[in-house]
């Protein structure tokens, strides 16, 4: 039998210890979250582990046959970003999916190691997956002039690799996806939403590009949003897929399939904005039909020109968002002073992307009746239009551009090339690189 005279003091001591631990933990957490007023956001880094390629001719063909991703400078970009975040007193970094090129397990592990160096500099990191990241049957390595299948990552393994980048700090987690809720500061909560469909990827033989939320996840979103409203918290959301259509040619496979149901819930609970990716284009759109106004802020792909990141500033009465280009030249001057490409990064990176645009046009018009001079002219115009479009600067795509007369060059009004190039000259939404807004009045 236990001696009550000895047991009671022990129990009191234990209780005091537990309560003290909770108080210290809560106090420490509050101190930490209070500091998260300035939040950086990147999306679509499409990182490929350096151990999976050798920059030989095969890899060159992969890069130059791709969609503008510059896979040669991944680590330099991330290192320069890390310096930028410290220089600008950023409190937290969000990564909104397509972390890896094609879901390679090693790429995830190496990227997590890069995030560790950022966290070690006092910046909290929160991640969610994109459609490329999980159960991807196209995970490949490119060495010795061979394309080799490599191990991909399962949802459970994603949780293990990135446990310390959001999941371990979650106030709540959805049981049917990798979605979770975190507290940015005592007044602001963030829904990190897993919008991907990866359960059938391996059987289909490709990663499903589309986004969809299960009914149970929609219910979870509603439950945690209701609780936030009851407690007077401001809510933002981050997800990989678009919440709202951004562009006439970027809808199917880009916007969440059940976005109307999601929009309704977001507006009901006063969610300020959705921070998204997937389309690789810097673009801000809004929807004010029905219950209220909400913004979808799509970031440009981090590994694609102009290599920007977003900054969400949480003020007392309003919030703002702006884009910043990674200061690669400053990093290069300190760490790689002989690399002229990085020292003159704007010239190098815009040229790299313009070359991609030229190749895209030439491929589309290959075998056509256009003369080589006309193809060269169309290619040059496309290079300029694409640079502005991907940077969220469509207002620069005006008829004053030299040689802009696309209709006379392309002729066929039904051609994909003409429709695409004309479509990227238009933008009816707000400024794509800056937004400022008062918090929703219900808060």
Question: Topology of this protein?
Answer:
Blueprint: H1 4-34, E1 38-42, H2 57-64, H3 74-87, E2 92-96, H4 105-119, E3 124-128, E4 140-143, E5 146-149, H5 155-161, E6 172-173, E7 180-185, E8 188-193, H6 201-204, H7 215-230, E9 234-239, H8 259-268, E10 273-276, E11 283-287, E12 294-298, E13 308-314, E14 318-325, H9 328-335, H10 340-343, H11 345-364, H12 372-390, H13 406-410, H14 416-423, E15 434-438
Parallel strand pairs: 1-2, 2-3, 8-9, 9-10, 10-12
Antiparallel strand pairs: 1-13, 4-5, 6-7, 7-8, 11-12, 13-14, 14-15
Helix pairs in contact: 3-9, 7-8, 11-12
Describe the structure in your own words.
α3 packs across α9 and α11 packs across α12. This protein starts with a helix and ends in a 5-residue tail after the last strand. It is α/β, with parallel strands linked by helices. 38% of the residues lie in helices and 17% in strands. β2, α4 and β3 form a beta-alpha-beta unit. The strands form three sheets. Strands 6-7-8-9-10-12-11 form a seven-stranded mixed beta sheet. Strands 3-2-1-13-14-15 form a six-stranded mixed beta sheet, covered by helices on one side. The protein has a two-stranded antiparallel ribbon with strand order 4-5. The N terminus is likely disordered. It has two domains: 305 residues, Purple Acid Phosphatase, chain A, domain 2, CATH 3.60.21; 82 residues, Serum Albumin, Chain A, Domain 1. The chain has 14 helices and 15 strands. The radius of gyration is 24 Å and the shape is globular.
Short description:
This protein is an alpha/beta fold and 443 residues long. The protein is 38% helix and 17% strand.
